[in-house]
């Protein structure tokens, strides 16, 4: 025979043609190839070249065995990776990467062979929970296994410190980062653990999970063996421990929210901020079961980072279906709790920046981390930076836009202790720290500040040095910064607030706003808002709806964000109807919400420091505080101390004030200055002052020739934070007796039944301020001298509130009612209207009729409409329309 010919057809072929055909590629039907005869095909055929069989290199019609075709089933005759023949290096029916086994006959796919081999390898895996953390197979020589062994030794040495039942119930274990890195065994075996944890956090955390899972499994197996040795009944020898997450906390360093960029994607970071929004808890699917539509076989697929995916093929050997339907009710489907919180950066202290919106980041919490915080809490979140598409964009360009979020690993609330599910800030009402940590250098500075001979004077002159005078006002503001001690914090009793509220009322240009900003800057946690640009929901809490899910979520307002801190409200008189939103927050120290079927209450344990201007721009001493501010009595009574800052001309005071202003302007530095006593520029309050060697107002002044170095703001902030965190003062019997005597003396000075200027609220205010005075000196016991200082501050406030325009004090003059000049006139007018209503059976009067009745009684006041408005505010007259009023007391 000549080369290139065959009896049955063409070269390298048989009846089916070149390189294929019905008989198989590279072999097949009839005809003899070159150098041989018989069968068919090159290197094949019955008597072909190198003889044997009917396929290439023999066999039953396929490449290296198989049933018909090159690589099974005919090349280009049937699919290359499929056909009726056997797979590559195997025989039978299926795909090239399949078959009964590697290099052997049988049926199936190469993927099934690999899976069977993987099952064999996994059966040799010593870690029972490997499949819960890793999708790849176990390899003994892998670097991951080395890390797991090191972590296993770490947990074994500390297994006695953990509550194993609690770990299984919560499904998580707390791992201290400092303890993990500081362990000698870990540091020696894994010197690059810090870098790996930062760059590959998921790998390290999964390794920690496998290690603790293995330690608990071995411990339970040991207990089961001991029970079996004692011939005690054991339920089952199979140990099924669920997935245990490693909650890494105390991770360092803290990452500012402004540095969260694309460069930190996939890294482990730790951020600190205030929770401003908390969503509802929803189920989050981590593994979903799918049913094959071809063979009804069920398989499960892990969903990475919440991204939905479907299987690419069926795992059954004989099924080629690629259509699946999810089965959410299958036991193979696994879901966990999932919640989103929004964390806003802390804006107090050095982090305060103006001219931009505070940065926020969303944190996704799962499992036991859900319900670990509420809006207003200060939290430290450790998590992995992830990205997700916003899901709203529709353009191709917008599909490349992603949003950064944190996949929460741990959440530490307030004191830095990791929070558990359902334990927000309400679980620790006594905790007031805000999670502040102090270095050794800062502790030495705090000790140095505490050792000052007259610390109150130093702090008062450090509070706002640019404002001259007002020393007693600054002293009260300093006490508000430290605050008292909250009592009855258990759930079975009503808590008594320990945060004092301060109100400053006065003429414009006296430095009220400057002092507010100074107090807000010094406070460890301070919020500053202005009344003319604040809404009710901006002060309390807002209920917003998520655009994607449609769920309602709570967004914290200023009072909730200032929880365990200070809320400064400027232009308090401009709030208008928003003032009523402060009633609950100032006394019960909580904000309740009932809207859209949601009833909730958020903590608002904050001190309110407010500044207000009187109506008309100038304070009228003939009117009370309530009349000057147009403020309700219920709100005004909640302030512990009310100060009046009046601009009264005084030659000596004006000269020293001008010298102070010029010294600051010409660059001679900030000089602490003294102030004149109120006896020089306003009125004599000597009848209020008890006999004392040196009253507080004189002790706060700086003598001539003496200089005082103010405490830097950063150190003063640390000192205040330390005092609020660690000092829990209580009253001594002498201090309690001093406060009680002062309270009873004030109560005895009222002369009429309808004038009660002093109530138990004032007594509680005295107690709070006295505790704050002791906390300022880092003392656990408030002494008699502390009570005397607070009594003098309270007398100063009462002298402002109950003094008339002539400098006299009248405690019948309630700060909540009307002024002296209008008091009797209002009573006479109401009595006359009462008689007129009984005669005419008419309860409504217009303004002209009211003027007629007043003229008949010879009532002459400078502002008659102001008198009517005062009666309206006090509830005697109800405004029914334009200049139309209805008598309420009939």
Automatic annotation (TrEMBL):
SUPFAM superfamilies: Nucleic acid-binding proteins, P-loop containing nucleoside triphosphate hydrolases. The keyword Cell wall biogenesis/degradation does not apply. It catalyses: ATP + H2O = ADP + phosphate + H(+). Residues 1-100, 414-433 are annotated as: Disordered. It is an enzyme of class 3 (hydrolase). SMART domains: AAA, MCM. Residues 455-661 form the MCM C-terminal AAA(+) ATPase domain. Gene3D superfamilies: 2.20.28.10, Nucleic acid-binding proteins, P-loop containing nucleotide triphosphate hydrolases. Residues 414-423 have a biased composition (Polar residues). It is found in: Nucleus. Coiled coil: none annotated. PROSITE patterns: MCM_2. Its EC number is 3.6.4.12. GO terms for molecular function: ATP binding; hydrolase activity; single-stranded DNA binding; single-stranded DNA helicase activity. GO terms for biological process: double-strand break repair via homologous recombination. One of its GO terms (cellular component) is nucleus. Its main location: nucleus. Belongs to the MCM family. PANTHER family: DNA HELICASE MCM8, DNA REPLICATION LICENSING FACTOR MCM FAMILY MEMBER. This is DNA helicase MCM8. It comes from Lates calcarifer.
